Amino acid sequence: MTMTLETPALERPETRDRSASNRRWQRFARPALGVVLPLTLALAWELAVWSGWSNGRLVPPPSRVFATIMELARSGELWRHITTTLSRVAAGFGLGVVTGTLLGAISGYWGIARRLLDPTVQALRAIPSIAWVPLFILWLGIFETSKVALIAVGVFFPVYLGVMGAILSVDRKIVEVGRTFRLSGPAMIRRILLPAVLPAYVVALRVGLGLGWMFVVAAEFMGASEGLGYLLIDGQQLGKPAQILAAITIFALLGKTTDWLIELITTPLLRWQDAFRPGGET
Amino acid sequence: MLALDKVGKIYPNGVHALERFSATIPQGEIVAIIGGSGCGKSTLLRAVAGLDRASTGSIRIDNIDISAPHEKIGIIFQEPRLLPWLSVADNIGFGLSELPAAARREKVAQALARVGLSDKAKAWPRELSGGQAQRVAIARALVPQPEVLLLDEPFSALDAFTRRDLQDHLLDLWADTRPTLILVTHDVDEALVLADRVLVMRPRPGRLFAEIDVGLARPRDRASPLFDAVKRRVLTALDRSLDRDVPDSAPAETVGAWW
Ligand SMILES: Nc1ncnc2c1ncn2[C@@H]1O[C@H](COP(=O)(O)OP(=O)(O)OP(=O)(O)O)[C@@H](O)[C@H]1O
Ligand SMILES: [Mg+2]
Questions:
Q1: Which residues of chain A have a CB within 8 Å of the CB of B77?
Q2: Which of A38, B26, B189, B246 is most buried (CB neighbours < 10 A)?
Q3: Boundaries of each ABC transporter domain copy (chain B) (predicted)?
Q4: Chain B residue closest in CA terms to A180
């Protein structure tokens, strides 16, 4: 104890400096690590085309993809496609999350409901979701409703499974604490079950969102006149690889951003977690 | 007063865990229950806590039948079982949700000071040591002022030093409101430091085997010859309960290895 207190005064400013630069490293450099690889690859390809090593016709260099994005943005078209796709994902994700959460919670909480409901849901899950497309078009038409329905189906299953699994694996010992304090049913749900399932729920939401982005492309392939998926098809039919790559890039950015938003919103709620974080806090 | 009348428990898988256990425990008494592994001590405590139902017999507190958790009864488990998403202060206040916020805060602050963890009020449970976590669990159980507090091997996961510390602490807290304490333990010393009466159980099926009045003055001196004499009595009873024959002159050390 006293030994550590007697560090020579001279060394102290230096260690403080080091810990400050350390913190700066954690704040900025660590996330920056994630973009090193894509940037290097992009730069390498740019150089390869620029030096004439490849003509870049089928795989246009980043500069041309960027130019295409700017062009689409200037004409206002890009914005229209992005909002269309985003609103489809939002509607489908919202619908899928609400139904998945409700049914998952019911199946997790009531044994009878689980025995009644779960086999059917599992059987439906075994159907490749794209197989629903023809049926949805017949039932719901080729416009927005069928697209939103398809996305919702994609989001539903991971959320349903995540919620049900999380409820079923809540620690009995923690539930007993609630019982000894005589919590009523709703209080037990609010004060014990909800917080206990939250970490797994966040994971389910993120998986669901990923599938939502996957299915919006499928939905927009089946006849759309706008949206990022339409840009893909359009680029293919008109032989414009730069447009395809532009759409793909925007998909990547939007997907990452929305996922990051979920993370951002839920991190403060999960600070209590005693989790294994290899390589330090992120 | 807590009255157990011929309490029995047969688990659904047919295990006869408890048979005709009867005892009367006046308000404010400290009772230690001791016995070999699997003799139904946890089963008994869970039944009194209302977490499981006894198959036969009755458990009454002040003439009220216990078949579900009751506000007059608190329980502390072997693990602290703190809720990981609540701060230490919120864990302690968990059973006080009916109280207005200000009153709750005050009680929690008092309890935190009482268990010496005021500086940890805002900490997460994961940031506590085992002994600190168990102290929070004790505070959480005591803060609603139960008339009966059940403890199922509450200190068995702690080192000997921390255990002694918490035993003293528990006695201190007990003196505040003098609830009835029923303490399951494997540690004869612990039983004799804390309890007014020791109940020895025997297994297969779990039954009450012997009852020993401790009758030592408080605070108890572990080194006194009287303490040693009672300890010998308890250890002999334990050995008998496990059908081991022990010569009366056996030194306490060898008898001590009873489990
Ligand atoms: N949930 C259960 N289902 C079936 N049998 C059980 C259950 N819990 C306990 N038992 C059985 O009941 C008997 C008594 O168990 P109990 O946990 O009450 O013992 P104990 O005295 O607390 O033992 P220990 O000192 O090891 O904690 C044991 O034979 C055990 O196998
Ligand atoms: Mg036990």
A1: 173, 176
A2: B189
A3: 2-228
A4: B69
